[in-house]
Amino acid sequence: MSPTRQDAWSQDEDLLLAEVVLRHIREGGTQLQAFEEVGKQLSRTSAACGFRWNSFVRKQYKSGIDLAKKQRKEMKKQTIPQEMDYSQVEASEETSSVVSAKSEGVTFQAVLHFLENLHKQATAASSIEEAKEKSIQKLKDLEKKSYLLAAENERLIKNLKAIEEDYRSLIEIMERARKMVVLQEEDRQQKVKFQMDKNGNLERVVK
Questions:
Q1: Which own/partner contact pairs does 66-70 have at CB distance under 8 Å and 24+ positions apart?
Q2: Which is more confident, 37 or 90?
Q3: Residue 76 three-state SS
Q4: Which residue has the higher pLDDT, 163 or 101?
Q5: Spatial distance between the Cα atoms of 6 and 86, rounded to a whole number of angstroms
Q6: Which of 53, 68, 155, 167 has its CA 20 to 30 A from that of 34?
Q7: What contacts 186, CB < 8 A, 6 or more positions away?
Q8: What secondary structure letter does DSSP report for 105?
Q9: Which tops the pLDDT comparison, 182 or 163?
């Protein structure tokens, strides 16, 4: 059994923690299950994963959490009964045709027709399932991109705030420097006075 890690979290580990927690939220799981899953992958305790999520990572994925909750509600609304109803209707139709065939006497054509329809249903169901899996995978890829963009947006906002603070500090420094120059100029002017020479002309006299 690998030892429990206690070193600092990396950006990739934070991203993995966010992806797993958001997936559990989206699929109706619990955060505790997510923490245990991440802990096994990173050789960390579930408590450490929970503390990291609540103290740091969760604040960067507020929009992602809202999106995952919304998707969970949508997934609950999408029920399989639509496919079940379709298959049941088809099955009932085929069953009734078989029963009818039995009542009239089973023929080779009736059995062949039944098998052909059954094959068509299986092919259609396979195509629907394949398209569904592709859609789910595409949705996961888009979600991952949205989470990355949300994290990048948070990072850019922080950088912008830091730049604004540096700019304000620079303006304050320049303003203080300007005031010092003005005071020095006023002080220099106060040290200069004029007096009249022998020829009646004014000349500057520095104190």
A1: 67/143, 67/146, 68/22, 68/23, 68/25, 68/26, 69/25, 69/26
A2: 37
A3: helix
A4: 163
A5: 54
A6: 155
A7: none
A8: -
A9: 163
H or E, element range at 205:
strand 202-206
Cα angle 19-25-26, degrees, rounded to a multiple of 5: 85
Output the CA torsion sign for 12, 151, 143, 29: positive
- Residue 1 identity: M
Confidence class for position 25, pLDDT limits 50, 70, 90: very high
Go through the chain and tell me how many residues it has.
Answer: 207
Phi-psi region of 196 (alpha: psi -120 to 50; beta: other; left: phi over 0): beta
Tokens matching residue 147: 């989470």
Single-letter amino acid code for the residue at 200: G
